[in-house]
Each structure stands twice: as structure tokens, then as C-alpha cells.
Amino acid sequence: MSTVMSNVSIRDLEIQLGSNKIIESLDLEVEPGEFLVLLGPSGCGKSTLLHSIAGLIDVSGGSIEIGGQDMTWADPKDRGIALVFQSYALYPTMNVERNLSFGLRIAGTPKAEIERRVTRAAEMLQLGPLLKRRPAQLSGGQRQRVAIGRAIVREADVFLFDEPLSNLDAKLRTELRRELKQLHKRLGATMIYVTHDQVEAMTLATRMAVMRGGVIQQIGTPAQVYAHPNNLFVATFLGSPGMNLLKGALHREGGGVRFRNEHVDIDVTAYPFLQSPPEKQPCVLGVRPEDVSIDPAFRHRATVSLVEPMGNHRVIWLDYHGAQIASIAQDTATAAVDEMTGFSIDGKRVSLFDETAGDRL
């Protein structure tokens, strides 16, 4: 199946619904063939942005280019896109084969070409044995595969996914996530995917854009965004549990830099400061749970408040002078609730944020 890889270029986009400005001055470049995930909480504007690319929402300002062509005011059918919604939206009286081919038949596509595309999509999504069934005879995962197949047969330039897995149970989400990843690999198509589920974003994306309040907070590979969040919102939104945060100040000492508050003292000299921090600069130190180590021999002392078994690891919550600190430990680690233990923080793997603005130092 030949698929044209097109870029999507959004410049200075503004979207206003009634008196509410949903998106303002947004710029976004989606490279040909990449899988870009728009991630953020409900109401952050990610679906609105996707629907504007699809032509379902009129923009108030700015431009949208697809494959180098200005599509800002083009009809949805002329944009070379295929859209998969959260709801399956299948025709209940048609079997799977006719659901897959419906759009092509309406467009007057030759019968042989329809058969080729439907057969190819069915092979990709393992729908062959289901082609004669109606939607009522399918599971939720099968119905969503049909909806994805209906998009594939269009052989579009850009595929848009609007939270397509959110109606499925956890096991089906995992299976379809894997299938979507394989599908992107086989098609090599440009895909833009909306979700509020960070696991979907981290596993699917070649790049992810984290949104809040209609603004892109950070864009990069999942590894980059996870390890080096731009601000406190990204730091706490990504990760399960989210990043641990401690308030304190930076102190210059003997050519190095240390983070201190009344309870902790951590060497952060290895942190890539853009410029030398002022003495006693207030800041917030962030550390991922996997970079908090637990051992009774460590000098920082805390009480174990909760232990969450996760199979091959455990999340151990520490009560440290009223602050809750999460640590991800292997199942061999010893820790019992209400027990006093020691912990340490890897100063080479911390993030530091401005206490007032919340931006990464």
C-alpha cells in the first residue's frame, strides 16, 4: 500500500469558540512520516487543534498547511486526511467489508481498487475472518480496528486519531496500542494522535507535544520530555507516580553547587546550569521516583507510609517531614509500612525549576 508522507505546518493558529479563546498564537511543525502525539489534560485544546487540522472547526487566525498546500479553509474532503474518532461510528446495518469500503464506493472508486484496499487493510488489522460480520457481532477492540481500517483504505496523506482507545478496557488498549505502533511502521504515514493517557503517548510517539490551556508546553521525544521537563506542569503530568518535588535553595560551595533546605543537602554541581545561579536562589528540585534509592544505611531518614506492589517492582511512599516522596524499587527491596528507613537522591539526575515561574533552570 503506497502512502504519501506529508508534513503538517501550523503557524500562529488562533481558535475562538464564542467568547472563549481556546488556542492562541500556536505554532507546530509535524514532519513527514512521524507519529506525533498531542498529550494533555481534558480541556487543554488538543482535540480542538486536531479538529482544526481536519477542517471540522474554523480557525480565527493563522494558517494550516498539509503537504505544502494551504488548507486553512479547505473542505475536510479535500485535505488528504483520514480521521478516527473516539466513538467507532460504524454503520450498524452494514457488515465489516461494506463499512470499510463505504467511503470508497461513495467516491466512485473502481471496484478492483476497492477490493485491493479493503483486502490490504483487513490483512494489516487481522480483520479477514470478520469481514461478513456486522458491528453488533464484534467486540469493542474489533470495532475500533474496523474504524481504523476505514481510515487506512483512504490511503490518506495524514492520519488523525482522536483518543481512539479511550473507550476500551486496559487489556484491549494495550493490544491496540501495539497494533497502532506496528501499523505506523508498516505504513510510514504521518500520524497525529490525541490522548490524555501518558502511557499511550510515551509508547506510541516519535515526538510528543504536551499541552495546557491551549499552549504547547514542550515538544520532543518521549525520552527527552520525561528526563528534562521544561516546567513543573510537564514534570508532574508525566510519570506514574509523577516527579517528586522539594523546595529549597541553591548554594555555591567550593566551586560546586548544592541544593539545600532544612532537611536535605544534595550536590547538584553536575546539573547543566545555563548560567551560574545566584547565591541562595530559591528553587524546586524534582527527582523521578526511580532515582530515589532506599536503604536503611542512607543518611536521609523517612517513614514508609505506603507500599504499592506492581508485580516486578514496588512503589514505596516515604513520609519525609510531611512531604510524600515516591521511590520505585525492585521487589527485593525491604520496606514495611510505618518502618523508618534511609533514602538518597541521585544529584546527577535531578531537575531544577524556578520557584516562582515554574520554568526549568
Name the poorly predicted regions. Answer: none
The CATH architecture of the largest domain would be 3-Layer(aba) Sandwich
Helix content: 10-25%
Terminus-to-terminus distance: 47 Å
Would you report the number of β strands?
A: 20
Helix segment tally: 8
Q: Please give the radius of gyration in angstroms.
A: 24 Å
Outline the fold blueprint.
Layout: E1 8-17, E2 20-30, E3 35-39, H1 46-54, E4 61-66, E5 69-70, E6 81-84, H2 96-106, H3 111-124, H4 140-152, E7 158-162, H5 170-187, E8 190-195, H6 198-204, E9 207-212, E10 215-220, H7 222-227, H8 232-237, E11 244-253, E12 256-260, E13 265-267, E14 281-287, E15 292-294, E16 300-309, E17 313-320, E18 323-330, E19 340-345, E20 351-354
Parallel strand pairs: 3-8, 3-9, 6-7, 7-8
Antiparallel strand pairs: 1-2, 1-4, 4-5, 9-10, 11-12, 11-14, 12-13, 14-20, 15-19, 16-17, 16-19, 17-18
GO molecular function: ABC-type transporter activity; ATP binding; ATP hydrolysis activity
Organism: Caballeronia sordidicola
GO cellular component, one term: ATP-binding cassette (ABC) transporter complex, substrate-binding subunit-containing
